[in-house]
Design a protein that fits this description.
- The protein has a single domain, classed as Rossmann fold (3-Layer(aba) Sandwich).
- About 40% of the residues lie in helices and about 15% in strands.
- Helix 3 runs parallel beside helix 4 and helix 4 runs parallel beside helix 5.
- It binds NADP nicotinamide-adenine-dinucleotide phosphate.
- NADP nicotinamide-adenine-dinucleotide phosphate binds next to helix 4.
Length: about 240
């Protein structure tokens, strides 16, 4: 069975971002219950409406995940609403860059580490102990090819994504025996406008649609994906 089992509880961060709605919709269709996390309740309500989530099966959780206390409270609120968290889909985003390393503003690098490394650590520490206790859990995040192959003037993004990836792949080695997996999907660009099909070019052939990403996330979150752990999986197969 490749579906997520009905009733699984998903903590979805970045729920209001370019991917959030489609990912929420897909998990909702599989019968999952969702705690949608973001920094603004109104935007979370919009995302839930766009994802056509049933009112009883989702909750808004307002939290700034750069703060460990907020991440712990987010996990608590999800557990109070639905009893537990089975799946963490971590899609917090943010980008700053365009400067050569020699001129890099340390604040830019700190901000990118906050968005990508620290939000990941905070939310993982908030939900993974419960998953280990229950001997089931799935953690999936999104990364970019630059984490492995940096581009000029993109150090902050590359460093932040590489740090996030290594954290999760280390986690995978620590919790795999407890029924918990942690994986990273690697996407060049999220093709929100369907550009790849409308204006095909070598540049956009390797872009990935929200629907394709959501399908992969649902699979990795499912019991069927138990043997996939600590992997960095690229979704750019058309390039
Ligand atoms: N976009 C791409 O082409 C692309 C390519 C490769 C990888 N990725 C990765 O894919 C993931 C999703 O990216 P995206 O482009 O969908 O992001 P996005 O559209 O920029 O959305 C960012 C999301 O993160 C949330 N967020 C930001 N700071 C937060 C904080 N401190 N605490 C809690 N939530 C916070 C935002 O919520 P609110 O603003 O509502 O609070 C929003 O839902 C990211 O990991 C990104 O690096 C993206």
């Amino acid at each position: 069975m490749t579906e997520i089992e009905g009733g699984r509880v998903v903590l979805l961060t970045g729920a209001t971002g370019v991917l959030g709605t489609e990912v929420a919709r897909r998990f909702g269709l599989q019968g999952a219950r969702l705690a949608l996390v973001g920094t603004d309740e109104g935007r979370l309500a919009d995302a839930a409406r766009d994802a056509a989530l049933d009112g009883e099966r989702w909750r808004p959780v307002v939290a700034d995940l750069r703060a460990a206390d907020d991440a712990r409270r987010a996990a608590r609120e999800a557990e109070q609403a639905f009893g537990r968290v089975d799946v963490l889909v971590h899609l917090v985003g943010g980008w700053k860059g365009g400067t050569a390393v020699a001129d890099l503003d340390p604040d830019e690098l700190r901000w990118m580490l906050d968005q990508h490394l620290w939000t990941t650590l905070n939310v993982v520490q908030a939900v993974v102990p419960g998953m280990v206790e229950r001997r089931f859990g799935r953690v999936v995040a999104l990364s970019a090819p630059f984490a492995e192959k940096p581009a000029a003037r993109g150090a902050s993004y590359a460093v932040a994504k590489a740090a996030e990836e290594v954290l999760l792949r280390t986690l995978a080695r620590e919790v795999g025996a407890d029924g918990v997996t942690a994986n990273v999907l690697v996407v060049r660009k999220i093709d929100t406008e369907g550009e790849r099909d409308k204006n095909p070019s070598p540049k956009n052939a390797g872009w990935t649609t929200p629907s394709e990403i959501a399908e992969a996330l649902v699979f990795l979150a499912s019991p069927a994906a138990a043997a996939i752990n600590g992997q960095r999986i690229a979704l750019d197969g058309r390039a």
